Amino acid sequence: MAERGARVILACRNEEKALDAVKQIRILTRNEDVHYQNLDLASFDSVRKFATRILNSQKRLDVLVNNAGVVDGVNQKTEDGYSLMIQSNYLSSFLLTMLLLPLLKASPPSRVISLSSFTHKYVNINPEELSTIPQGWNPMLNNIWYFRSKLCIVLMTVELARHLKDSGVTANCLHPGVVNTNMLNNINVTIIRLFMKVIRSLVKTSWEGAQTAIYLATSPEVESSGGYYAECKLTNPSRTACNVELAKRLWDTTERLVNFY
């Protein structure tokens, strides 16, 4: 997007890594309009402060990309009292989107793009369980809740699209593929890390993994809303992800959990 001349704001927790990324992007794209703003998705206060800064400093917002992928920490508690994984991957993405909607609506046609995963197809979700922190820890439990966080993203997109009908804002989500990023290095389970070493040659590069998100952000072909995409194509999510009543229940529960009404 920077190569296309867009103003890009990287919302990141780690300032050192973010500033290094800004520097590299500016050099590679010759676009100086690339910036960093601090955002810690494990803190609702940080989300609200970030949103306030954006609303006060930007005249328009054409594209919001929710790209959170915490793969560990399901039983770690945040300052807000929720699972680190669930808050970072889903709750804060919901809150951030809601807070920035006024600017998105003032910048039509604008787009909300959220990264999910094909793994959402392997689980179900009880919205009331989002406020609980799983006890104990094992690889299977951790994986199940990661999958659930990605199912929440698809369900959020379905209901968000309904709320945004005729607003000039579209909402879609995507599976980027299995991407070879530093996130994989943060997995603490030895057997999973060994497995990842075996399949790294089969997974996508970061550039390849970004293509569907870039397509949804920039392509004039994308006019629909509420879709789930993979390989730059509209595809079918799980049957659970298409449950409109479940999406509504999740939405109502999430509004309460993040204190946004």
From TrEMBL:
Coiled coil: none annotated. Signal peptide: none annotated. GO terms for molecular function: oxidoreductase activity. InterPro entries: NAD(P)-bd_dom_sf, SDR_fam. This is Uncharacterized protein. Keywords: Oxidoreductase. It comes from the Eukaryota. Transmembrane segments: none annotated.
